């Protein structure tokens, strides 16, 4: 923590002692601070001073370097300071008083206000129903994916090039969903939580890669003339695509780990501090939403090309087919669309509209 040369201080024992709500406390402290906090020319910020009864410091010695959590008790609410960017804005003097920058308190109290406002929108019953539906949908999806993989394993005739790609697509999605469910029931912060966070990020990116591979192979079938492949060619092609599928997740996860390692001077890895996933909402947008959005747009383009090719062939065949012949074109379109992941666009837009990615 930074040692400041403070020469003035504020006693906050008598500030806002009334029973204010979480929403009112921000206004209360802001108004009082403006009246009694003075900026010293030797300091880098205006600040308030708290005595030992108003704060608590917890140091996790198991981490290297130790993780520090400062909890400030304002009677009607509490705020926690854990991030490095916030810890440099506080100081414990020789008398064990805690000096905290006003700007930091303003921001933390605003976060408390925003959290309380969000909680009001999410009623207990509604949240319970949402959680149950989410869990139920996850379980249904996992069961369907297991049945899909079992079907491919039981019938070798299905394990063509496209079939093997679909197996990896199903397996990657299954792994990502299971990892996400585990992360939801793992406490943070912990080493296990960090590992699960890295694995969850990696597996979802791996699934996005297989979405792209399947879509790319789909459009190749309708645009490139390819002969029959023997078993050796199929095995070689499978290993080639499998190796290529790891490029995106390895590069992105490595970039996140490296960035957080250097920006935190080795203290943080960017995963598992507040949740068993990426800590920074900005990095979620850059390393998850952005690749997903780009890959999905490319996949949709592949799908439209395939649809056009099928339509062109179907139009040429219409002169030779009887009018009573069944038309399975729409069924084919629906089946092909499942490998593109186009519905991820809805999820990305929902995240942007709800301000969960960039805050």
Molecular structure report:
- The protein is mainly α and 359 residues long.
- Helix content is 60%, strand content 8%.
- The chain has 11 helices and 6 strands.
- It has a 3-stranded antiparallel β-sheet with strand order 1-6-5. A 3-stranded antiparallel β-sheet has the order 2-3-4.
- The two termini are 27 Å apart.
- This is Adhesion G protein-coupled receptor E2-like.
- It is found in: Membrane.
- It is a multi-pass membrane protein.
- Residues 130-359 form the G-protein coupled receptors family 2 profile domain.
Helix count equals 11
Order of helices and strands: HEEEEHEEHHHHHHHHH
User: Spatial order of the strands in the main sheet?
Assistant: 1-6-5
- Structural category: mainly alpha
* Count of beta strands: 6
Poorly predicted spans:
1-42, 355-359
Give the CA-based shape.
elongated
Termini gap? 27 Å
Overall mean confidence score, pLDDT: 77
Strand content: 5-15%
What does the radius of gyration come to? 28 Å
Characterize the largest beta sheet: strand count, sense, and whether it forms a barrel: 3 strands, antiparallel
Fraction of residues in helices?
A: 55-70%
Which key terms come to mind for this protein?
60% helix; elongated; 359 residues; 3-stranded antiparallel beta sheet; single chain; disordered C terminus; mainly alpha; 6 strands
What topology emerges from the helices and strands here?
Blueprint: H1 22-36, E1 47-50, E2 55-60, E3 67-73, E4 78-81, H2 84-87, E5 90-92, E6 98-101, H3 102-121, H4 124-154, H5 161-184, H6 191-223, H7 231-245, H8 247-263, H9 281-317, H10 329-337, H11 344-353
Antiparallel strand pairs: 1-6, 2-3, 3-4, 5-6
Helix pairs in contact: 1-3, 4-5, 5-6, 5-7, 6-8, 6-9, 9-10
